[in-house]
Amino acid sequence: MGEALALYIPSQEITATTQDEPSRCYFHDGDGVCEEFEQKTSIKDCGVYTPQGFLDQWASNASVSHQDQQCPGWVIIGQPAASQVCRTKVIDLSEGISQHAWYPCTISYPYSQLTQTTFWLRAYFSQPMVAAAVIVHLVTDGTYYGDQKQETISVQLLDTKEQSHDLGLHVLSCRNNPLIIPVVHDLSQPFYHSQAVRVSFSSPLLAISGVALRSFDGFDPVTLSSCQRGETYSSAEQSCVHFACEATDCPELAVENASLNCSSSDRYHGAQCTVSCRTGYVLQIRRDDELIKSQTGPSVTVTCTEGKWNKQVACEPVDCGVPDQHHVYAASFSCLEGTTFGSKCSFQCRHPAQLKGNNSLLTCMEDGLWSFPEALCELMCLAPPPVPNADLQTARCRENKHKVGSFCKYKCKPGYHVPGASRKSKKRAFKTQCTQDGSWQEGACVPVTCDPPPPKFHGLYQCTDGFQFNSECRIRCEDSDATQGRGSNVIHCRKDGTWSGSFHLCREMQGQCSAPNQLNSNLKLQCPEGHAIGSECATSCLDHNSEPIILPTNVTVRDIPHWLNPTRVQRVVCTAGLKWYPHPAVIHCVKGCEPFMGDNYCDAINNRAFCNYDGGDCCTSTVKTKKVTPFPMSCDLQGDCACRDPQAREHSRKDLRGYSHG
């Protein structure tokens, strides 16, 4: 290709020129600016030139005769890089050519010893069309260093019926790059749509960076050739339309909520009108009663053709849609006027939120958005409900308006305390907070309880209300004790959770328990203190991996359900009634827990309430990794390694009555 060259000589350089100094030249090609005079000649600055009335379609897929990782065929897909200059008389193509162009790199050198080999590439196009020309863009013209002859390529078109159409043999030259091969159609034969181009050549030094198919823009010869008598081809419709010598005027164009700008006051064939919707309205464009598109653009042009307008246009109001909580939080909306431009919706605050402001209306604006609310729904809590066995300490909390986040203080009545408080502190004061849904946090006061009396008195005392506050527990001794001042064997549970005194042994409470016998299998007792009243025997299991526990009378060691959490037993005591407590007959040995709880592996042996369901490892909602991994891997996730924990989120909506036994 010839390079564009222009002279630029400033006025101050004229004098310098007379003193035999050279003039200054500016080289336009490759300066990154597409000048008007470069559009047809400079590929670097303007890309491949496409004449007016034509459309160039570059290859969307490709196959080649020789390729590997060094020279893949896909590099010819799409428009070629403008930075690549065509080279001639090359020695080899190893310097980065494969990044921009394909060449048969799998052929071995030297060039002089190559036998005659035919190389080829086939370029495919996504949209078959009637070809006007084929464009081949070169990076090298295939000539070897010191070679005097020019190389050639053979080009064929492949149509949609897999028929081949030969375009002949063409000489290659970097001066004529890209190579544009015109396609001549035989008008005595039907037009055909081309879908691929095949390029064949024999030089291994030919590098091709792109192949394009040039077609007519807005003109389809195949459709044109199909027009029947009385029809003519319409470039606007790109189809055959009925033709009549006597043109019929179109009816008056009337579009509500729009302004019209027509080329003439008459409505003759070919007249055009531009339709622009007013603010707040959107264009609806139809053709033959079928919606083509909906646009918010400024305008559309309609044309009078054969007595009717080629498009049906309407201006519909913008629809804002039903407002939701993103517009006004904690509100419900009523849109009796609809939700289109200019319509208004009112809102009411959902209980217990209260309206703050006077204007509870929203208006659908021209941009399809609702107007900014001038009022809001402020969530408020009513007066907090009474808490049983507690007194409200904050006087203002008796009112009905409380902002989210405000607190109310309570104090448990004497003999009651806050749940969860330790036995030593017995905390009585607590706070509740107004939450975002307009409700108060729950608070409670539970009765103070005292620890059970020493186990050696088990079964000998009677209490009026268990171990709760104000309960009286009594051991009745024989009358002889009363005469000696020991008849006051009575204790009371005080409000601080301690007993008013302690039990003592009655005179008649003497002797010792019999030695424990008939122990359950695997259970062992050790009694270093003997069997006297108050003596303790340590419990253990012969199997060091088992633990002593108490089982209900209707449950055996072999059928313990997973939800049952039996009580562990460390020792038994000889009571003043000369009985062992707990009785050894109800103590059994069961398999203990493996020490791998909470390690993100669901151990089947630990998947039970007794082992805290393996520390949460068997449920997706409680395992740290959020994915249950069974151990061993063969453990069934629907069986022994299933999610059994009734407190897990997986069981939040299931019937948990079966778990209440634990």
From TrEMBL:
Q: Which cysteines link up through disulfide bonds?
A: C450-C493
Spell out the reaction equation it catalyses. Cleavage of the 135-Met-|-Lys-136 bond in insulin-like growth factor binding protein (IGFBP)-4, and the 143-Ser-|-Lys-144 bond in IGFBP-5
Q: Tell me the CDD domains matching this sequence.
A: CCP (cd00033)
Any GO BP annotation: proteolysis
The lineage's top-level taxon is Eukaryota
State the oligomer form and interacting partners: Homodimer; disulfide-linked. In pregnancy serum, predominantly found as a disulfide-linked 2:2 heterotetramer with the proform of PRG2.
**Protein name, UniProt field:** Pappalysin-1
Q: Which organism is it from?
A: Myotis brandtii (Brandt's bat)
